[in-house]
Amino acid sequence: MSISKRLQTLMERSGIRELPAHLKSGVERGLEQRIKLAVTGLSRSGKTVFISALARHLLQSDQDRSLPFFTPVAEGRITATRNLSHQAPAPFPLTETLAGLQASPPHWPDSTDALSEVRLALRYRRTSGLTRVLGEESTLYLDLIDYPGEWLLDLPMLSMSFKQWCQQQQPLFEQAPRAQLAREWRDRQQQIDWLVPASDTEFSHLCAEYRTLLQQLRKPPYSLSLLQPGRLLMPGDLANSPLLNLCPIITALPQATETADPDSLYARLERAYTAYCDQVIRPFYQDHFRHFDRQIVLVDCLKTLNHGEACFNDMQLALNSLLHSFEYGRSSLLRRLFKPKIGKVLFAATKADHVTANQHHNLDCFLQLMIDDARREMRFEQVDTRCLALSSLRSTTAAEAKLDGQHLSCLRGLRKDNGEEIALFPGEVPVALPRPQDWNSDRFRFVDFAPRPLPAGPLHPEHHIRLDQAAEYLLGDLLR
Amino acid sequence: MTDTHKWQRPVELSTDTLEPETEASQPASARDIPLEKAQTIPDQAEPDEVTTPSRQPRSKRLWFTLTGLVALAAGAELVRLLAWGFDLHPLVGSALGVVVLGLISLLGLEIRRGLKGSRQLANVRQLQAEGAALMDAPTHGHSRRWVKQLEAQYQHTPLANSLQTAISQLDSSYNDREILHYLNRHALDATDRKAQQCVQRYSIESGVLVAFSPWASFDMLLVAWRNLRMLREVATIYGLAPGLLTQWRLLKQVLQNLAFAGASEMAMDAGSALLGSSLTAGLSARAGQGLGAGLFTARTGLTAIKMCRPLPDNRQPSSQLSKIAKGIVQRLTIKQ
């Protein structure tokens, strides 16, 4: 090998080549010109649709049409927006997603199974002020990351040992509906001697059963959220990898774990857990989840109302535990350069178009109930938070019906399952936690709607609900 | 499930029973809905009427009597004048008659305009009060009446077009607060800009006039004259019928507002306008006086805008004031 070639590989390895790029992005970060927005949400909470809708609206934001509450757009200060996603290692399939929504009949995007990234560059005119001395026009780089929501639930596992994880899972599996479904599996676990050597097939069999169990719990009518590890549900590029052979011990933990045989089930599980944390979660966290500046947490409140108390409690627990994995606090200039923290968080109740407009405020209040704990902690760290009911892509139209001589506002849209047009008053969203006897009654009927076709031409404010206010809250102060 | 709940059960309707949302006012014939049982819909309570303090009837009666007496006396004098004219010569009499008729019709027109203007001004105050309450309301549907009032108020004014456009763009999902913010931002934008330009122009004018006028007492007259003209123009821009009475009412309100503006606010304004920068460095005493007069005009104008606008402006007034101050200083230093 010639010397120059060696030198080249050395340079590549040491990362010197990327140094100028790193420096540039660091300086831009410091000047708040490069923003990483964390789009957080459990699976099926609408991350992909949010990202594509926001990107689509921002890409046409120079026309001042679709985002009336986003100040820089309303003031006509955005000159142009450019999509730089191709520079990202895994670009977000924006064209494909939008094509699916523009097709006839349109369809919601499939579940995300891999990580991808949108990068947008917004060119804007500054308002007259102190920053004007830096030049009349400036550019804001906005990074949005899309990923399967299941993976997000792995993040809390990083701070736990295998033992702690099992201890956390045990009470969960003692409550309904997990307890009923997992009865057989628990009985099986009770017969196992964890410390004696076991065969490979026994081990993989145990884990395969756990995986089936998780898949059952995720589906309706249970629709649970706190299902760890997430890769078992959405393996991504790790399909059939031995790393995914993993499950918790939900019976009493064995006493003298130090004496466990290296081939015993306990030792195997503990090894698998450590390997999973080190090789799967940590790289994911370190590459993508550390350096965020702003965060939007998308929550599908209507799902919990449809599925009842167990689903609500589980989602509340899942959200509050995963939000601990992010770093919150005010960032000074230096901190922004080296170790940014999330300084502004927006909690968004998605699918606001699935309830009538007079229920949006109730949806806000219900969301506040759900994320109360996490929000309090953020406020302690002096982080700005806000709750908002939004819909990234509106699938219904408002209508009014006369019923028994009274006007009733309702929704009109196409059912997601059979494409039939319906008119529906889906019920009122409660502002306080419903009592146990109120759950599972026929109080709510939130139907999933199919999307309305998105025009290929310019979008209008009626294509979203409060997406502009979300953008204003998250980005408005950066575009001054 | 017990019947103690106040919530409403979900209903699925057949799509034929729907009415287009915009035609809510048009009565639709009742039709059978085969799907569901009887529903009770809790009425959305209308917002409480905002009561504006009514004038005391006694002082009003006094005013009426006084004006009536004055009008009677003037009428008697006019009749005597006409009789005297006809006595002198029929031609003189008819000429006088024409002049008097012209004067009376002019006066009537002015009074009508003034009454209209002051009624509009009172309406604006009411809109402001109700709007301020709605501006923080996350409720839904209460602003419909307010928007209708707004539309009626500005029907035949220069604002009607932009207001109509903005109202037609309102989305069905907006709650009351969003509707008001939307209108505040999108319907009144062009008008605000026009009014601010007007205020700026007059402030600079009066600043320059005072700086270059030779007599001190003349200054005050100048400033008063410019201010009155400005009030009239601002009122016209916001679609209020211009008239002496309107102008007088507006002036009263503005002066009241200025007098009772918090001392801190005043100090802040003065600080930001005069001391905050090196603006005043290099200004002579006369130019300083000019700047003061200009700033006074500007503050009067901005207050007048506040009075004429149906919604509170949520931008900072101090930034506008300092902008105007900069404009005046620029003009003064160029001229010197």
UniProtKB/TrEMBL annotation, chain A:
Pfam families: DUF463. InterPro entries: YcjX-like. This is YcjX family protein.
UniProtKB/TrEMBL annotation, chain B:
The keyword Cell membrane applies. Residues 1-57 are annotated as: Disordered. It holds the Pfam family DUF697. Belongs to the UPF0283 family. Keywords: Cell inner membrane, Cell membrane, Membrane, Transmembrane, Transmembrane helix. It is a multi-pass membrane protein. This is Putative membrane protein. The chain crosses the membrane at residues 62-82, 88-109. Coiled coil: none annotated. GO terms for cellular component: plasma membrane. InterPro entries: DUF697 (IPR021147), UPF0283 (IPR006507). It is found in: Cell inner membrane.
